Amino acid sequence: MDHGPHVPDSALQDGGGDPGHAASVPPDDAGPRRANERRRQERRVADRDAAVLRRAFEGFSDGILVCDGEDRAIFSNPRLHSFFPGSPGVEAIQGWSFERIMREALLLKLVTGTGTDEPVDPERHVAQRMAQRRALTGRTVDEVGIAGRWYRRVEERIPESSDGSLPGGAIVTTYSDITDLKQARMEREAAKLEAERGAARLAAAVEAIPGGFVMMDENLNYLVWNSRYPVIGGTTDAVIRSHRTMEETLRFQAERGDWDHIRIDPARFSPAQIAATPILEKLIQLQSARAPGELPSAEERETMVAWHLMRFAPGGRPDGETGESAGTFRVADTGAVVEYRRNRVPGVGWVSLYTEITERVRQVEEAAAARAAAEAALAELRAAQDSLIQAEKLASLGGLVAGIAHELNTPVGISYTAANHLRTELSKFRTLVDENRLRKADLDEFLELVGEAANLLEVNSGRASRLVQSFKNVSADQASDQRRTFELRPYLDEIVMSVGPRWKRGGHLVHLHCPDGIVMDSYPGALGQVLTNLIVNSTVHGFEDGRSGRIDISVVRPLGGEIVLVYRDDGRGIPLADLPRIFDPFFTTRRGQGSTGLGLNIVYNLVTRTLQGRIDVWSAPGQGTRFTLRLPQVVKAEE
Fold first, then answer.
1. Residue 350, strand partner residues
2. What is d(CA 68, CA 320) in angstroms, rounded to the nearest whole number?
3. Strands (E), 479-561
4. Residue 540, number of CB atoms within 10 A of its CB
5. Residue 125 per-residue DSSP state
6. Do 59-177 and 209-356 fold alike per CATH?
């Protein structure tokens, strides 16, 4: 930089250089020379100050652009060009118009933001910026994105100087990097927004809780509650807001008389507990002094408040009530039943949930009453069913007796006829002997007759004896329901024989297939009742009137301790719609014709309960019916 010629101080002294003598200067030139020297000195100072100022601006942390009155660049510092990577250097843009500088930056796609979310439109941006600068009269501040970073841009118009050194004035634009500040601000705003959203979500979640909700700090100050909390407690949101602590709310409830009906029962506490709890002792004394029907005093109500607050103290109350608890209470003025649960959250305070369960309690009570009534009706129904089942069993035995009587009629009748005939012939024989007219032919004839009669008596009396024994065994087992060990094949023979009148009367056939040597430890009476009912069911429902049928009873040798007994008839079958209901009590297709609908129900209960087995049925119309019984060879002992 040009600082002007340096003039040494000796130039102002005389030729000898003697400081004590004045230089020999012509008197007429001394004044102008001093003025020129002064101007040169001032210029040197001004140039030095300008150089210092320029170096300061060049090293300034903000980017600086100065344009003259015609909006052409007259100064820019290196910092500005570092904000616009790839832009021309400091010297290159001297004299450029501001519009050209802008277009160069846009061409390099360096302007990335204008403070809005809209993308940068080059022509629109240029037009807007030029309009802003033409209208600029003072100072403007905005934010702009450049090369992926954000800057605070300050533009200020400098008026023309009075000395004419700045014709037309100037526009100074500075750029300050605020990326980190903006990021921090955006993060704060995002955090604030997230906090607001979190608070809104919390409020929505609290409000969505199905019941009353309240959160208190460690000092029982209310923090958060939903709109249902005051309603459930029989109060209002305004009351909660004006009574911001649990203690204030309890006092409000006490003054309202919510607890006037409560009297502490001293018998619930030991003398030591009462003596160790001054609040409890005082409350008992105050309540004991109050006459029935008399309202509590202010002192008693205040003591009741302290008694309620005591549950939040360490250790809780002597009656076991603590801050962390659950239970129910009834609101005094509404009668509503409220279920509550209160928990302590370390570092937060207390969280309480309140749910009105008045309707649920009513439903439970009604359900309990209905259940009791249903159980009573069921007991009556079971008693009636047991009576009907017993009657059915007795009817079955009665039918068995009638059938056996009918079967016995033939052998007993034959035996009786043979005995009478033998008596008549014996009388004749005795007469021949008495009259001494007996011949050898008469003796041979009589002996032959006696042999025939004895044979008839033996055969028919044996048949009758077997019928009686079968009846005795089957009827005794069905009547006693006793568990015993028995061989299966002979017992099945006895059952088939005992119900013979049932199937013989209609001309039906019964075929039994059972291996010998199978021994069961079970209930023979129940098994006999099952087969009897199945045979009766086939003869009554399975075989059409006038048509003889066939019944097959087959037993598979035990495998794994289980006996499989298959009962099959070739009758009319069961309609598919009726199959799911055949074991239901009182289901019958012949109601009004002597059927009770209990026969197969008894079969099912005896197989599944008494005999501890399973029973399945298959049938199709016109293809007969098959019952498959799976029975344990040894039943389990009754518990």
1. 216, 344
2. 88
3. 484-487, 509-513, 519-522, 550-559
4. 16
5. H
6. yes
The confidence score (pLDDT) of residue 115 equals: 56
Give the SS3 label for residue 97: strand
Architecture of domain 209-356: 2-Layer Sandwich (3.30)
Do 251 and 259 touch, CB atoms closer than 8 A? no
Rg, C-alpha atoms of the chain? 61
pLDDT per residue as tens digits for the range 446-477: 787 787 777 767 666 766 666 666 555 555 44
> Per CATH, which fold does 481-632 belong to?
Heat Shock Protein 90 (3.30.565)
Q: Tell me the DSSP string of 28-66.
A: TTHHHHHHHHHHHHHHHHHHHHHHHHHHHHHT-SSEEEE
Query: Phi, psi at residue 81, to the nearest 5°?
Result: -70, -25
What residue spans of 136-208 are helical by DSSP H?
A: 179-208
Q: Where is 566: in which H helix or E strand?
A: strand 562-569
Chain-centroid distance of CA 10 in Å reads 107
The CA-based angle 345-349-351, given to 5 degrees, is 70
Nearest-angstrom CA–CA distance, 267 and 277:
15
Q: Does domain 59-177 have CATH number 3.40.50.300?
A: no
Beta bridge partners of 142: 153
How far is the C-alpha of 521 from the C-alpha of 278, rounded, in Å?
74
Q: What is the 3-state secondary structure (H, E, C) of 234-299?
A: CCCHHHHHHCCEHHHHHHHHHHHCCCCCCCCCHHHCCHHHHHHCHHHHHHHHHHHHCCCCCCCCHH
What lies within 8 Å, CB to CB, of 192 at 6+ separation is: none
Residue type, 291: A
- State phi, psi for 155 to the nearest 5 degrees: -120, 135
Is the CB of residue 358 less than 8 Å from the CB of residue 336? yes
**C-alpha distance from residue 33 to each of 2, 5, 88 (Å):** 21, 14, 46
**What CA–CA distance (Å, rounded) separates 170 from 67?**
6
Task: Select from 308, 356, 351, 350 the least CA-distant residue to 328.
Answer: 356
pTM over 0.90: no
- Residue 77 is given by DSSP the state -
CA distances from 217 to 198, 252, 346 (A): 19, 20, 10
- pLDDT per residue over 52-93, tens digit each? 877 888 888 899 999 998 999 999 999 888 888 888 888 889
3-state secondary structure of 602: helix
The dihedrals phi and psi of 345, each to the nearest 5 degrees, come to -110, 110
Hey, which residues does 614 pair with through a beta bridge?
630
Q: Which amino acid is at 185?
A: R
Cβ neighbour number for residue 90 with a 10 Å cutoff: 14
**Measuring CA to CA, how many Å separate 408 from each of 411, 460, 501?**
6, 9, 10
Do the beta carbons of residue 145 and residue 114 sit within 8 Å? yes
Q: Which two tokens stand for residue 24?
A: 């020999």
Helices 98-107, 122-135: axis angle to 10 degrees equals: 150
pLDDT, the chain, mean: 82
The domain segmentation of the chain, as residue ranges, is 9-46, 59-177, 209-356, 357-474, 481-632
Cβ-based neighbours of 602, under 8 Å, separated by 6 or more: 389, 392, 393, 529, 533
